Amino acid sequence: MKAGPDRGFSHIPVVFEDEVILAVDKPPGTVVNKAVSVNGYTVQDFMQSRFPDIFPEQPGTGDDFLMRSGIVHRLDKETSGILILAKTREAYAKLINQFKHRLVKKSYLALVHGKVVPAEGEIRAPVGRLPWNPERFGIVPEGKEAVTGFRTLEYLILDSPTGDMPATRLILKPLTGRTHQIRVHLKYINHPILGDYLYAGRKTSRDDRIWIPRVMLHAYDITIRHPVSGQNQTLTAPEPHDMMDVRARVTGHPNT
Question: What pLDDT shows up at residue 208?
């Protein structure tokens, strides 16, 4: 299966590829799906450029595999990390089915406000669109079941422009896949993600954005059942430089 020239997409690193799937390390700021409201190159543009014989730029309607250019799942624009893409219709269908039946395992890295206590646990709270603001999500009784496991990797004191900032580096494992689930759940336990312009609160997000470039959330790894071999396969995207740069401003570690 011959690949195209990747015109203008050198900023999207390929971390794995075989005959049926592709995994990329999506950079922050890159949108996954094309839309009228989206400016700039997307992951979908990347797939259409790399595989022009498979994914036409104008796919028509009625065929999800072509319409989505093999995109099996999504990440928010400001979220970086591992993204799985399908190169065949059969692989696409099998991967979609794995997501549907919660067979896919994912881990995220996040930098959050405050010292998270306890250091390990599970957040269970239904997530849905806010009735008074349908562009945002929150914890609502009529929302869909949502479960996120978390574990503390490190407690930090960061040197921010507004003074010493307590923070926690977490690894998170969403057991469900609701839109904005991790961001909403962390806000719910009063530890919003650093730089989260939607859920950290107006003043906090304004102060964050003075020195933090984006939402500090990274899709670190994903485990799928390979659509051909049937074997479990884990694919990883290393912690990005901008998150390491924020952590480098550490001035101390609070008592654990």
Answer: 97
Is the model's pLDDT at 59 over the cut of 80?
Answer: no
* Token pair belonging to 87: 């190169």
Q: Which of 195, 132, 143 is nearest to 165 (CA)?
A: 195
pTM of this structure: 0.93
DSSP string, 23-78: EEEEPTT-BSS--TT--S-BHHHHHHHH-TTTS-SS--SS-HHHHTTTB-S---TT
Q: Which residues are catalytic?
A: 76
Tell me, rounded to whole angstroms, the distance of Cα 20 from its chain centroid.
Answer: 22
**Domain 1-101 shares a fold with domain 104-256:** yes
Tens of pLDDT along 181-193? 999 999 999 999 9
118: preceding bond cis by omega (within 30 degrees):
yes
Task: Indicate the fold that domain 104-256 takes in CATH.
Answer: Pseudouridine synthase (3.30.2350)
Q: Calculate the CA dihedral of residues 31, 239, 174, 187 and round it to 10 degrees.
A: -80
Query: Domain-by-domain residue ranges, the chain?
Result: 1-101, 104-256
Closest by CA position to 96, among listed 115, 70, 120 = 70
CATH 3.90.1150.10 is the classification of domain 1-101: no
